[in-house]
Amino acid sequence: MLSIEGINVYYGSIHAIRDVSLSVKEGEIVTIIGANGAGKTTVLKTIVGLLRSKTGRIVFKGEDISAASPASIVGKGIALVPEGRRVFPRQSVADNLLLGSYSRKDAHVAQDLERIYAMFPRLAERRRQLAGTLSGGEQQMLAIGRGLMSRPRLLLLDEPSMGLAPLLVRQIFATIEEINAAGTTILLVEQNAHMALSIAKRGYVLETGSVALAGSAESLAGNDDVRKAYLGE
Prior knowledge:
The chain is built from ten helices and ten strands. The chain has helices at residues 40-47, 70-76, 93-99, 109-119, 121-125, 136-148, 166-181, 193-199, 217-221, 224-230; strands at 2-11, 14-24, 29-33, 55-60, 63-64, 78-81, 154-158, 185-189, 202-207, 210-216. A hairpin with a 2-residue loop joins strand 1 and strand 2 (14-24). By secondary structure, it is of the alpha/beta class. The model has no long low-confidence stretch (mean pLDDT 92).
């Protein structure tokens, strides 16, 4: 479904991403793990067109989207749930969700809105509440729901567990599995390597902008270097 082929991304003179290649097959959960500053978020921003690669290319469902605009990439079926949630604090929960469907012209937006409320009952209870008054966990639910309102084929999740209590982390990861089981492919960036590898099929370890390791989630979880560096063992 998604193929990233040798991309190189710069912030001015800083070479942030170095010859990164990775792939995501339809129906998979694939995770990218790594330390702060490894380049994980940069990869996601490049996929959705917020950053540009100087070399290499990004192919989605057989189409080169390397030069596509962010809006057109959403229309092609990719949605990003950004790090830090980035909800619109002075808009209601309902309006935040509807903003996720801005690119759609079909007649099923209301139906999908109810599907999100069924997935996240807390959002249904707070649909008229301002997003900025929600708890961190509720804002994360809202950010995921907003991403799903574009009906993506591929959902990019950037640090969905950040700042959440352990119980909420488990709930969010259970929801990610539910979303995947319903047919949405997922590329997950996550510092909580243990949780990420527990739900992913495959994974990549990013170190200082380069892919240091790649393989099945099981093999990465059993790798001594990964265990010491990212699993606290």
